[in-house]
Amino acid sequence: MPPPTAKLPPGPRARYPGQHLVSFARDRLGFLRSLATYGDIAHIRLGNQHFVILNNPEYTKQILVTDNRNFTKGRGLERAKVLLGEGLLTSEGAFHLRQRRLAQPAFHRERIEGYARVMVEHAARTRDRWIDGAAIDIHQEMTRLTLGIAGKTLFDADVEGESREIGESLTAAFDVFNLALLPFSELMDHLPLPWTLRFKAARRRLDDTIFRIIAERRARLGDRGDLLSMLMAAQDTEGDGGRMTDSQLRDEIMTILLAGYETTANALTWTAYLLSRNPDAEARMHAEVDSALEGQLPGMADVHRLPYTRMVFAESLRLYPPAWVLGYRAIKAFALGDYEIPSRTIVIMSPFITQRDARYFHDPEHFNPVRWTAEAVAERPRFTYFPFGGGPRQCIGEQFAWTEGVLLLAAIGQKWRLRLAPEHTVALDPSFTLRPKGGMPMIAHLRPGRPE
Fold this sequence. Notes:
Blueprint: H1 19-26, H2 28-36, E1 41-46, E2 49-54, H3 57-66, E3 71-73, H4 75-79, H5 81-84, H6 93-103, H7 109-129, E4 135-137, H8 138-155, H9 163-180, H10 185-188, H11 194-219, H12 227-233, H13 246-277, H14 279-293, H15 307-319, E5 326-330, E6 334-336, E7 339-341, E8 346-349, H16 351-354, H17 374-378, H18 398-413, E9 416-420, E10 428-430, E11 434-436, E12 441-446
Parallel strand pairs: 2-8
Antiparallel strand pairs: 1-2, 3-5, 4-12, 5-8, 6-7, 9-12, 10-11
Helix pairs in contact: 1-2, 7-8, 7-18, 8-13, 9-11, 11-13, 13-15, 13-18
């Protein structure tokens, strides 16, 4: 291989200062798609800050796996610390490794098997509330459902009744997060501006819930078999032998609660939308569910008996990955293909863009769950699909999410067909996660032969 040149990758030049920032703010996904037309790697510059945008699975593997020690979190997650603190998503280095070691046992297969019963119980309660022919906002319903599951399984806390307040607080926090990405936004954190006041109020609301959970658990010591018990009791035997403070617990709970319900709620919402648009795939999933379960609620033992349902969820994550973009900052200069990339460059990878690349996915805009047979998967390079990231920072709750996604789709699909409300126009809201703008109003139709 020839040595890399000093030339930067191709990319659009700004016609006026701040043009790229304006274009990104107006249409984030459209801007990233326009950069993908420059090839596997594109370069832009904002002031003295270099950005490279990757659309090549080998380059993605280099950043996430091969050379991961040369990269820290990008500006987005640096700024997310104002909400998440030093949780698993934002912490770095030895501290991150310590926290991950302490949390990892809660996501082992044996623990997830115990969580499956709670997942299905909550799903059954949700589906039994619905009325045939009634309009529901499936995004609100999935948010309430997954929040209740995350609270109970991970923290043994009942927070489902607070789903509206928590959801509104997160929405307010995400709105301010968009502004937090602007240059010099750190200075605005200390000014009494309307959006900073809204953000601080939202953070206080979320902190009230989390510190209440911690205080209740401190008052009732003992292993409850959940993540919070493990975090409170665990000692870092490979490190300093210390335990987590309330502040550290708060950061981890905030991070895992957000990741454990917000992303899955979005994924299930997009799956419901895609099934409503693809009735043949929906009918095949329903037939599998009916055959495998024979009218009984699903359980952990049934997950492997629902391969097409899992493929439906996988294809939904391909088209609408909740974590739609990943950003890292280079510590030192590094080679990428034929280019030498300067230190402190922000490297951006977008599952939303790569997972719609026609080189790897035929007719990429089409919803086709059969892409996820074992044979089809084996033919594609590893990082053509990375909705859960990869490498040492791969999502700690990935298996939790797969199990929850399959079980909830099966439990709800046993009873209901969902159809998009005819007057609603679906729009994307690529903020901290990929949400549907304005919710997702749908009509619930009882499947034939299913009792009210």
